[in-house]
Amino acid sequence: DAKTTQPPSMDCAEGRAANLPCNHSTISGNEYVYWYRQIHSQGPQYIIHGLKNNETNEMASLIITEDRKSSTLILPHATLRDTAVYYCIVRVGSGYSTLTFGKGTMLLVSP
Amino acid sequence: SQTIHQWPATLVQPVGSPLSLECTVEGTSNPNLYWYRQAAGRGLQLLFYSVGIGQISSEVPQNLSASRPQDRQFILSSKKLLLSDSGFYLCAWSETGGINYGYTFGSGTRLTVV
User: Is pLDDT at A1 greater than 80 in this prediction?
Assistant: First the structure.
C-alpha cells in the first residue's frame, strides 16, 4: 500500500471548518483513500473513503486532487467532539487488503 | 445491523500469566476479522487477521496467538504475558470481497501487565 504523509497536529476553532491534508504521491490506480479518526481511548471510526471523485457524507467531505497525489478531509463545522487523531490511509479496496495506520494528525478543536 | 463485542474493557494481569481476549461479531456472516494493538503513545499495529474459520495470518511475530473457532468469533491468546504486551487491544471486522467500506472496530481492551 502507498505511504501517506500527514501533519502531526492541527488546531481549529469550534464552528470553523477543519481542513486536514494528506499526501500520497505514490498512490496506485486501484488504491482508495480512506479516512478514520480515533477519539482518545476509543477504537478508530470510519469517516469516508474515495477513489478519484470528491465524496461527501454526513460526517465530512473528501477532496482528492486530479492527479490523486493528495487529498483533504473537511469537517465543515468542527465541534469539540471532533477532537481526535485523524488517519489518512491508502489501500486497495478489496476485502483481503489490510488497513495500515500511520501516526495521523492530532486535531484539537478549541472553544 | 452489525455489532461487534469485545471484552473485557480493562484487564490487569501479572507477568507470566495467560491471556484470552474474545471478540464476537453479530449481524453478518463470513466477516474478515482483525486484532490490532496500540502501545502507549504509539500507533495502531495489526497483529492478526482472519478471512475464515481456522485461517489466521500473523503480521508480527510475538508472544501472542489468535484463533477463530467459529465464523464470528476471534480470540487473542498468550501462554505467558510479558510487560511489553501491555497496551490497548482492538478487534475489528470488515466485509469480504468487493469494495470495502472500511473496518468497524470494537471498544477495545486496555491490558496492563504488572
Answer: no
